Amino acid sequence: MTDADFLIETRTFYDTVAEDYAVHFSDPLGARPLDRGLLDAFAELVGVGGEVADLGCGPGRVTAYLASRGLSVFGLDLSESMLAIARRENPDLRFERGSMLDLDLPDGSLAGVVSYYSIIHTPQDRLPEVFAEFARVLRPGGHLLLAFQAGDEPRRYEEAWGHRVALDFRRRRPERLAPLLEAAGLSVRSRTMREADEELGEPTPQALLVARKRAVPETGAGQDAEA
Predict the structure, then answer these.
(1) Of 15, 93, 112, 121, which one has the greatest count of Cβ atoms within 10 A?
(2) 184 and 203 in contact (C-beta within 8 Å)?
């Protein structure tokens, strides 16, 4: 599958189901105190004074939550229908259309990146490119929060809320993603795994990683220290 294929498939899926999705997941954090706790911790790690991007923001609920925690945050998504909902519900926040594979952002411009269940449609062989983009736009010392379903077997949906659609939902193992993040210059600081909550309809355990972009050492610093 080419970049264009999976991006088009993802955008078409969410353009089709956007309004139903927004109703079904009207309060995605309300019954998930552990997830809120990690988002709060991320907000504290990032602190004030830097910009944060919520990549794959969907209808903007996580974007709005982070904004309520004092962060200067904007959302980015492939789906214009999802963005329309995000803008309608959060007129004071900025939402843009774009792809995680090609972020229209300067190098080192962000204090934080959130990828909240937004890598779940990305083919495995494209993840290094996505993580390289995350690292590129983060400033040294900037933080990444990455959330995803934990597991091995993907699931393909060809129907959702009465719509004929087609999209793969890929599950990942934290221990397999950590080396890819490290290779991109993002040191994993925290790994959290919680069991699936049957009352919330979660079919798999949920994983959240926090990583930090490594600072670039000054040229000659080691030699000077030993001299």
Answers:
(1) 112
(2) no
Dihedrals phi, psi of 10, to nearest 5 degrees:
-65, -50
Domains in the chain: boundaries: 3-226
CB 54 within 8 A of CB 120: no
Place of tokens 């080396």: 179
Asked if residue 155 has pLDDT above 90, the reply is: no
| Residue 198 to residue 43: CA distance in whole angstroms | 28
3 state SS of 153: coil
* Higher per-residue confidence, 222 vs 62: 62
Q: Does position 224 have pLDDT exceeding 80, yes or no?
A: no
The model's pTM: 0.90
User: Alpha carbon 194 to chain centroid distance?
Assistant: 18
Among the residues of 47-197, which ranges form H helices? 61-68, 80-89, 127-137, 174-183
Tell me, what's the pLDDT at 3?
52
Q: How far apart are CA 30 and CA 93, in angstroms?
A: 21
> What number does CATH give the domain 3-226?
3.40.50.150
If phi > 0 it is left, if psi is from -120 to 50 it is alpha, else beta; for residue 164 that is beta
**Whether 165 contacts 157, CB under 8 Å:** yes
Q: In Å, how far are 12, 33, 82, 109 from 16, measured between CA atoms?
A: 6, 30, 9, 33
Sign for the CA dihedral angle at 129, 218, 104, 143 comes to positive
Q: How deeply is 155 buried, as exposed, middle or buried, from its count of CB atoms within 10 A (0-12, 13-18, 19+)?
A: middle
